[in-house]
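--- STAGE predict ---
source: upstream dedup step, 1 unique chain passed
mode: sequence only
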Amino acid sequence: MARVRYNDPEDLPEADREILKRRINLHRALSNSVGGTRAFSGLGQWIRFKAKLDPRLREMAILQVGWLARSDYEWSHHVKIGRDFGVTDDDVRAIIAETDGKDSGLPALDRAVLHAAREMAEGPGMKEATFAELKAELGEELMVELTLVIGFYCAVVRVLNTLGIDVEPDYQPYLDAFPFPK
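--- STAGE serialize ---
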């Protein structure tokens, strides 16, 4: 249950209503701070629509962070979003397997991205060997982008879990299909 109010557009001054163009619970809760919502959404929009990092790899990294944080909201939303960017159900199962230290059958680059996400999520940051391996494959620009993606979503899951953001009914089937272990 959310710890803050979920706003609707009519709860906001007319000039700020556009921040709720996506009426997901996360945005509805964040809209209690209009400036915070704008800043948060700016980086999120850049990550999703303007970054050069392969979108499937991006979603795999986000899903890894969501799985580790046991963030119902992040996990369910990005299982759905990931499908739009080429993440398959087999990929989702592979992320779970990788997290458990099992053979996932994923290509080396995918495994390295997931490993990097685990290192950053568990802190304090990506290890030198992991960074070097990925940098050799991705180059500096994409390494910065990957680091921003993972770091941003490490923050997002903390915000979601702290504010107690509820999974919307439209996203519950994705959580039901790939539930967290009990």
